[in-house]
Write a structure and sequence with these properties.
It is built from ten helices and seven strands. With 273 residues, the chain is α/β, with parallel strands linked by helices.
Length: 273
């Protein structure tokens, strides 16, 4: 039997019970895009400008002029442009604390973000805390199993333990931030992972650069999707650069990354490009 990730996104949607996982896969199939745009800007107008240019997944907690009315605008854009929000929050605390961070405070993340992520450092309680408020709303969680920065400590037994934790909570944990497939990793004696399917979202994607001065390392969409089995490429500065108001240039770059990512996915399926 072929590995689940070699199936189409649409077919794989049936492998998940979590509504957000199914929504992501169905949206990618419908839009013919596996591109996620990570928008690291601090001004709400710049954020909205980029969203209107590319219709991305995005995150909100670095916005300096945040008001909750911004969420209403984001929700409207999500419906208008048919995309899903991924809040790259990287929760990393005990269960009770992350439950409050997820549901309350200024940003009320669970009320609008379809997907978020967490470090497995605190252990299973971080999943339990987030799940207690996210699962009733059909939200999904990614665990940070690997990172794209040089010298990352998320390797070896750390990565393996993240996978083991995910297997215990597949109703809420739908995948990983990682550089490769996690399917079948770190199996316990007697475990069968032949039908296991987790979404892999991969940051550190670039077409022109191999890295930056802050330790980021870049790979191409082909390397991530075709060679390493990633499902979603996460691109930030490679699309919007230093000028979030250059809408035409942003849209053109987003279109290029979208085409490259989709071509790599089609090649993985064995289709002629």
């Amino acid at each position: 039997m072929s590995a689940p990730y070699t199936q189409t996104y649409g077919a794989r949607a049936q492998n998940f019970s979590n509504p957000t996982a199914r929504l992501i896969l169905e949206t990618m199939e419908r839009k013919k895009s596996n591109l996620a745009v990570s928008v690291d800007v601090t001004n709400s107008n710049d954020l909205l400008s980029i969203i209107k240019a590319v219709g991305p997944y995005t995150h909100i907690d670095i916005i300096e002029d945040f008001e909750f009315s911004l969420i209403k605008q984001l929700q409207h854009l999500s419906r208008e442009y048919d995309f899903v929000y991924f809040e790259d929050r990287k929760f990393a605390d005990i269960g009770n604390t992350v439950a409050l961070q997820y549901s309350a405070g200024v940003h009320k993340i669970v009320s609008w973000a379809h997907l978020t992520n967490a470090h497995p450092v605190p252990g299973p309680s971080v999943i339990q805390g987030l799940s207690s408020v996210g699962l009733p709303l059909g939200r999904g969680l990614l665990l940070l199993a690997e990172m794209s920065t040089k010298g990352s400590l998320a390797v070896g037994s750390y990565t393996e333990e993240a996978v083991r934790m995910a297997r215990q909570h597949t109703d809420f944990v739908i995948g990983f931030i990682a550089q490769r497939r996690m399917d079948g990793l770190a199996l316990q004696p007697g475990e069968d992972a032949s039908g296991e399917d987790f979404l892999i979202l991969t940051p550190g994607i670039g077409l022109e650069s191999k890295g930056d001065a802050m330790g980021q390392q870049y790979r191409t969409p082909h390397e991530a999707v075709f060679e390493s089995g990633s499902d979603v490429i996460i691109v930030g500065r490679g699309i919007y650069g230093t000028d979030p108001k250059a809408v035409d240039k942003i849209a053109a770059k987003a279109e290029r990354y979208m085409a490259e990512g989709w071509a790599a996915y089609q090649a993985r399926l064995g289709h002629q490009i």
